Amino acid sequence: MTSAQPSFERIDCPVCDGTVFAPLFEQRGEPFVRCRGCGLVLINPRPVSGVIAGTYDAAYSGGYIRKAGKKRARCARWVARIRKRFVARGRWLDVGCSAGFVVEAAAAAGFDAWGVELEAAAVAFARDTLRLPQVTCGTLDSQHYPAASFDVLSMYDVIEHVPDLNATVAELKRLLAPGGVIEIRTPDVGHFTTPRRLETWREIKPSEHLYYFDRRTLPRLFARHGLKLIERRLMLKSALDHVYGHA
Known about the structure:
Elements: E1 8-9, E2 21-27, E3 30-35, E4 41-43, E5 46-47, H1 49-53, H2 58-65, H3 68-85, E6 91-95, H4 101-108, E7 112-117, H5 120-129, E8 135-137, E9 150-156, H6 165-175, E10 176-187, E11 211-212, H7 217-223, E12 227-232, E13 239-246
Parallel strand pairs: 6-7, 6-9, 7-8, 9-10
Antiparallel strand pairs: 1-5, 2-3, 3-4, 4-11, 10-13, 12-13
Helix pairs in contact: 3-4
């Protein structure tokens, strides 16, 4: 017996509400398109959210945990930079925190550090091995954190996975304390190192990376929710690193 084919859903562009898309290519039966209104690249139509969630499992987290030494050093640098440039103390929430290395680094730097992650094995590692009791399992909206309760919110290589972008950014805005910042890191489809033949780019991942932002589309998404771009880091690899705050 063959397994059932996943159901697909068509969406309007989450950045500009556009409904006209230019086809680019197809991988594993999933169509990659570009919004004619704003230029966002996305999978559309895409698998329904249950299929998307199923791409994150213990094997996925295990690959991340095996690189713990390198990841911990990198996360410590990220936290130190935010602490030096924007927010020196307060509450930090890492959204999509995986095994908890950013939460660990933020706690070591003196923050009241929290994390939320969808994949249960990663949460178990954070709680049991790293001793981070404030890492919880689930989606951001299911946590019901109080409004304006975090001085730093981070999403490192996460926003491209999120099925409902506008609901997520609205929740980030609700949780951001006055004077706080949100740091977003995601692949940059417009970077000078990104291949012109996008289908060959290593960041093209059906059912996993749903959106591919550039330096125009990501700020436009956040601006819809009253969040302004504070800093755009120059990146030598094909990635965006943006810091946002209240407009």
